[in-house]
Every structure is written in structure tokens, then in C-alpha cells.
């Protein structure tokens, strides 16, 4: 597996055993700036998708499908729980009848 470091704004790959042990303050400052910009772009993308989910017909349909799927999963879980509870109660009642 390859490791690496940022060098003058570019990623330089190194074998994982030779990853840079000493990093200068300038390198860290540059890496922090790159990470901050990347995080900002990711946050902007996430907010844009959220806006599209709420303000477009396609987005609202996607939310509706997701809610339908979640509702079906919840109903399946409730039905399974009811089935197991019924089996348990039947077992307890059978034990009581045998006594």
C-alpha cells in the first residue's frame, strides 16, 4: 500500500513504510489549506443536494420513495415482532396447559 504527502500542493506517493516522519510547518499549513478547501467543497455539494431534494420534483419524488421504503421496512419489522410475540405467547400458554 502506498502512503504519501503533499509537496508544493501536489500529492507525492511513498511506500507506506517510508512515509514522511518529519513535516515542516509550511507543509502542514499547505495540507491544512487543501483539506479546508476540500471540506468546503464537500459541504457546498451536500447543501446543494439538500436544496435540490427539497425544491425539485425529482428530489421530492426521491424523498417520497425513501419514505415509502422506510415505512415498508418498519411495517416488516413490526409484523415480525408481532409474529414472534404471538409464538412466544402460544408457547407459554401451551406450557400452562400441560401443567
Outline the fold blueprint.
Layout: E1 2-7, E2 10-15, H1 25-55, H2 57-98
Antiparallel strand pairs: 1-2
Helix pairs in contact: 1-2
Short structural description:
The protein is α+β, with helices and mostly antiparallel strands. The protein is built from 2 helices and 2 strands. It is elongated.
Features:
about 100 residues, two-stranded antiparallel sheet
Description:
This protein has 99 residues and is α+β, with helices and mostly antiparallel strands. 74% of the residues lie in helices and 12% in strands. The chain has two helices and two strands, in the order E-E-H-H. It has helices at 25-55, 57-98; strands at residues 2-7, 10-15. Strands 1-2 form a two-stranded antiparallel sheet. The longest helix has 42 residues, at 57-98. The radius of gyration is 28 Å and the shape is elongated. 0% of the residues are buried.
Instruction: Please state the structural category.
Output: alpha+beta
- One letter per element, helices H and strands E, the order comes to EEHH
Parts with pLDDT < 50 across at least 5 consecutive residues: none
Characterize the main sheet.
2 strands, antiparallel
Distance N terminus to C terminus?
Answer: 66 Å
Overall morphology: elongated
Average pLDDT over all residues: 87
Strand order within the widest sheet? 1-2
Q: Helicity, in percent?
A: over 70%
Q: Any idea what the radius of gyration is?
A: 28 Å
The count of strands amounts to: 2
